[in-house]
Amino acid sequence: MNIATLIDGVVVNVYIYDSLEEAETLMSLGAFGDINELIKLPDGFWIGDRYTDGQWKKVLPTSF
Asked: Which structural domain range is residue 53 located in?
């Protein structure tokens, strides 16, 4: 299962764990640093996308 680590609602990293509980245990031990939240990452979302008030939002790429 893909588990997202979030800071202020933005996915900053993704890890693969057998369960959310396993990742929460590691978070309680300080394994992820300054993250605010762990959540199961649904298909189609990745690093940089946002999760706010129970809703996922895809961040679209920008051109230079």
From this structure: 2-57
- The domain tally of the chain equals 1
User: CA angle, 25 as apex, 19 and 27 as ends, to 5°?
Assistant: 105
How confident is the model over 10-45, as pLDDT tens digits? 999 999 999 999 999 998 888 888 887 899 999 999
Distance of CA 3 to the CA centre of its chain: 6
pTM: 0.83
Q: Does a structural domain hold residue 48?
A: yes
